[in-house]
């Protein structure tokens, strides 16, 4: 059975977004958030999470306040992700790298992370660069998303020279045409499309609305949506991750750790089976959680302990 190294269902201890949002500080960082702040039924300051404009304003405030960004925006209808959960993935990935480094998180320019499907929002590189000073490669199939991600990069000095956004011309490929010859990646991260169809994605959206108690309000669902390629792929996340595993074999020497979020626990059985068929050297499953929501990511490597040590000696020291 693959090792589950973290069974917690709360935010990572290093996650900056513990507890309630500090709306006073957030409004100072981004004054345009103020019109969206209100008291909820419990008398606590919040925003209307069914309002796409409010959610985008909150994201801007968080990025300006915590991650040293000067400007950030996304095109209409593109995914506007919740930042605390994205930060959790990055922090747990940092812990994964520390396992092979005597418990010390490797930081700085010697670490390169590949974000598979960086999206128009560029959230994972923003967090990873700010928190650990890693270099990032962001791959993406959508040209509009690429243009916007690169715009975010260019307009923010803190990430400008730490991120390389690259176009993936074939949506069936994960690594081919992205990695350059002899390029080495310390960890690949991926938040794959969860759903196999638009109909299935809509069901998921309605479920989120219901969980927030907003099903009878009739607000826009834009903040829970996104472009079709951000939410769906043929066969859903299981087929995407299985395809990623099969292709990862060809890049076993180029990438130390491969990781992917798995939204549904029931999908792990098929994913473990595929990993065993690929003859990986190690598999880890890391649990993550926020409030009532729990998720996890699977990590695998083709490197044994000796090869791990050689990698660290040549790149991290």
Describe the structure.
With 317 residues, this protein is α/β, with parallel strands linked by helices. Helix content is 37%, strand content 18%. It has one domain: 3-Layer(aba) Sandwich (Rossmann fold). An 8-stranded mixed β-sheet has the order 1-9-10-8-7-4-5-6, sandwiched between helices. A two-stranded antiparallel ribbon has the order 2-3. The radius of gyration is 19 Å and the shape is globular. The protein starts with a strand and ends with a helix.
Architecture blueprint of SSEs:
Elements: E1 3-6, H1 23-29, E2 38-39, E3 45-46, H2 52-66, H3 83-99, E4 112-116, H4 123-132, E5 135-140, H5 143-155, H6 157-160, E6 163-167, E7 185-190, H7 198-211, H8 228-231, H9 236-248, E8 255-262, H10 268-277, E9 282-290, E10 293-301, H11 305-315
Parallel strand pairs: 1-9, 4-5, 4-7, 5-6, 7-8
Antiparallel strand pairs: 2-3, 8-10, 9-10
Please tell me the overall pLDDT: 89
The CATH class is: Alpha Beta
- How many structurally independent domains? 1
What Rg is obtained from the alpha carbons, in whole angstroms? 19 Å
Strand and helix order:
EHEEHHEHEHHEEHHHEHEEH
Low-pLDDT regions = 197-201, 218-224
As a percent range, the share of helical residues equals 25-40%
Structural class by helix and strand composition: alpha/beta
Please name the fourth-level CATH homologous superfamily. Vaccinia Virus protein VP39
Number of strands: 10
């Amino acid at each position: 059975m693959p090792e589950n190294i973290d069974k917690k269902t709360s935010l990572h201890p290093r996650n900056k977004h513990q507890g309630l949002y500090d709306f006073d500080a957030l409004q100072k960082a981004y004054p345009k958030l103020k019109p969206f702040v209100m008291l909820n039924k419990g008398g606590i300051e919040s925003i209307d999470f069914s309002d796409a404009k409010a959610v985008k304003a909150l994201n801007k405030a968080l990025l300006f306040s915590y991650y040293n960004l000067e400007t950030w925006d996304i095109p209409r209808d593109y995914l506007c992700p919740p930042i605390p959960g994205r930060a959790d993935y990055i922090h747990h990935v940092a812990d994964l790298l520390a396992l092979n480094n005597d418990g010390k998180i490797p930081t700085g320019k010697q670490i390169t992370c590949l974000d598979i499907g960086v999206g128009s929002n560029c959230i994972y590189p923003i967090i990873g660069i700010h928190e650990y000073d890693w270099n990032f490669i962001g791959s993406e199939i959508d040209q509009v998303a690429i243009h916007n991600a690169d715009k975010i990069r260019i307009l923010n000095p803190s990430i400008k020279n730490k991120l390389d956004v690259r176009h993936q011309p074939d949506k069936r490929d994960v690594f081919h045409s992205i990695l350059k010859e002899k390029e080495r990646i310390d960890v690949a991260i991926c938040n794959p499309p969860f759903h196999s169809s638009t109909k299935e994605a809509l069901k998921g959206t309605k479920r989120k609305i219901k969980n927030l108690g907003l099903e009878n309000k009739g607000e826009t669902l834009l903040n829970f949506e996104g472009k079709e390629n951000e939410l769906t792929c043929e066969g859903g996340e299981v087929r995407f991750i299985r395809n990623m595993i099969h292709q990862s074999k060809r890049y076993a020497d180029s990438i130390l750790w491969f990781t992917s979020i798995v939204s549904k626990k029931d999908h792990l059985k098929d994913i473990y089976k595929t990993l065993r068929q690929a003859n990986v050297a190690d598999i880890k499953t890391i649990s993550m959680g926020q409030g009532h929501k729990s998720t996890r990511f699977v990590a695998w490597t083709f490197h044994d302990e000796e090869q791990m040590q050689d990698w660290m000696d040549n790149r991290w020291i």
